[in-house]
């Protein structure tokens, strides 16, 4: 890897556009494309015998873990305990050596994540590290290293590391499901085929949505607050969208589970706060649309991130609708990450902030 910006204005932009390529690298490490099977080499972690999985991480890596929780529970029927590392390390939660543990960290040096790892080790759990930097402390102290193969990530706001973490977690969850007999050989092949389509779809989507993201960001840059909503795996994505926007544009944003809307945040809805609704046409779609209706009824301005089927199914008025291709549920979080990243990026560029080095932030937080 040559670490320069190439033709891009910022490392973050370069890293966003690198995703089709690096996701391909990540997948080739976990997928046998000739057989359409998962080959994770995870001998050190016995997902088959595990009674549960503990996951911990910080920031964006934590949000990747949260998507992973949905996958491990759904595909491998493995109960997942997940928390941000700064809470995980002090909660004194009872853990059993029959559980496995995964720590997700781009840098592999995050202090709280490392402390959580050591807590699990003291409790006799086998440790897996989902890291970008293979020579890192977290990788060194683990029983199994699951590299995300994203290449150096320079932008403080994590983009390609997030989608590569997701690709690896999806592969591990399918692999765990296979080992536990909850994913059949046919299902495995079908899921792997969907994973294999991902790089091509990502390239297409990046080209497709770029102009719309740029013009939309002008609108966003005028706002003081933005609310992101999603259900299922789109809920962690909503939080990731809000985190990205906060980090680089300094606009206040919150990510909420769409179903929580009426338990508080609905009070914020007015014509000044855009609500970004992330809703692929999946089994949660109708529910999310009914939350969207509640926003529309109160004069809220909706930015609807959906797919072709979702756009056809909803007739609600929106400020903008971003239409992605219909993709399988297993790859939707990675594909839907792209508009979220580009929206934050262009908003920050438009506002003239220091995109790669936002104020007050460090790439790797090695102190508590
Ligand atoms: C994401 O955009 C962040 N800057 C931040 O939340 C980051 O993901 C977090 O600090 C974790 O870092 P790590 O992956 O290197 O452990």
Automatic annotation (TrEMBL):
Q: What is its EC number?
A: 2.6.1.16
- Annotated localization: Cytoplasm
Keywords, sorted A to Z: Aminotransferase, Cytoplasm, Glutamine amidotransferase, Repeat, Transferase
User: Which positions are tagged coiled coil?
Assistant: none
Q: What positions does the domain SIS occupy? A: 43-182, 216-358
Recorded GO CC terms:
cytosol
The terms under GO molecular function for this entry are:
carbohydrate derivative binding; glutamine-fructose-6-phosphate transaminase (isomerizing) activity
Catalytic residues of the enzyme = 363
Q: Catalysed reaction per UniProt?
A: D-fructose 6-phosphate + L-glutamine = D-glucosamine 6-phosphate + L-glutamate
- Please give a single GO biological process term from the UniProt record: carbohydrate metabolic process
Q: How does it assemble?
A: Homodimer.
The entry's function note states: Involved in the production of the root hair deformation (HAD) factor specifically on medicago.
Q: State what protein this is by name.
A: Glutamine--fructose-6-phosphate aminotransferase [isomerizing]
Native organism is Rhizobium pisi
| Gene name for this UniProt entry | glmS
